[in-house]
Amino acid sequence: MIIHQIFGLLGDDMPDLFKNLIPKITDFCLRNNYQYVNWNKVMCDELIKYHYPQYEELYNNVKYPIMKVDIIRFIILHRYGGIYIDMDCIPVIKKVKESDFVVAYKKGLKREHYEMEILQSKKNNSLLLHFLNYVKEQIIEKDKIEIYDTWKARYVYHTTGPYSLTRFLKKNKINPDTYIINEPDLKTKSLNILGGEEFISYPSCSYLVASSSYSKTKEIN
User: Fold this and answer.
1) Beta bridge partners of 112
2) Measured between alpha carbons, how far is 191 from 182 in angstroms, rounded to an integer?
3) Is residue 12 included in any domain, yes or no?
4) 150 belongs to a structural domain
5) What residue numbers bound the domain in which 97 lies?
6) Do residues 135 and 165 touch, judged by C-beta distance below 8 A?
7) Is 189:183 a contact under the CB 8 Å cutoff?
8) Beta strands 2-6; 82-85: pairing state
9) Is position 111 within any domain?
């Protein structure tokens, strides 16, 4: 089993939260004899260029850098298999599931929904590339809708993000295995633990739309 994380596509200044959580992930790997890989920008760019050139244009021409992070996690898992974990998440389970495809399922105080903070897949899972082909379609479609020039966060959610993944799963009648995660409150910094969580998501920095860019802060991720 390989545990994958990504840092460096949105800048090189690592937040203290990420620095503090990495040892928890690496300890989890040591206890279970899992391999740990933290992907940087060069590694991600070269993976696309040399092994998935059919997605290079998609990857390099997205509107907002955060969309690269959304895309590359599926490429990494297709190439190597394993489990992808966002930098602001940690496992509270003893071991990962023995399952070919698992997505995060967020339980919040007001809603429940699929998320992409945690993704697990077997190697060469064609489903992952089918989703990226769907992403291409969604970008073309949403680029024609003027309101998404203003609704930047919603644009990302509906093209490369979890809302797009949810529609894809529903359209293809796929009921994936899930990891239960919490929905933290960015304003109060509350983790909103409801019980039964398998991963803990910390309020950090993901999906914040700035006036001229889209950086990874945590509106909710």
Assistant:
1) 107
2) 7
3) yes
4) yes
5) 2-215
6) no
7) no
8) parallel
9) yes
Q: Residue 186, class by beta-carbon neighbours within 10 Å (0-12 exposed, 13-18 middle, 19+ buried)? A: middle
3-class DSSP state for residue 117?
Answer: strand
- 189's CB contacts (< 8 A; 6+ apart) are 203
If one counts the domains in the chain, the total is 1
| The overall pTM is greater than 0.85 | yes
The answer to whether residue 78 sits within a structural domain is: yes
Is the C-alpha dihedral spanning 165, 166, 167, 173 positive or negative?
positive
Distance between CA atoms of residues 20 and 3, nearest Å: 17
CATH number of the domain within which 50 lies: 3.90.550
Beta strands in 7-145 (DSSP E): 35-39, 82-85, 89-91, 101-107, 112-121
When pLDDT is cut at 50, 70 and 90, the band that residue 51 belongs to is: very high
Supply the pLDDT for residue 206: 53
Task: Identify whether the C-beta of residue 20 lies closer than 8 Å to the C-beta of residue 90.
Answer: no
> What pLDDT is stored for residue 215 in this prediction?
38
Task: Extract the tokens encoding 108.
Answer: 């919040």
Summarize the confidence of residues 5-16 as an average pLDDT. Answer: 94
Across 72-94, average pLDDT: 98
Residue whose structure tokens are 């239960």: 180
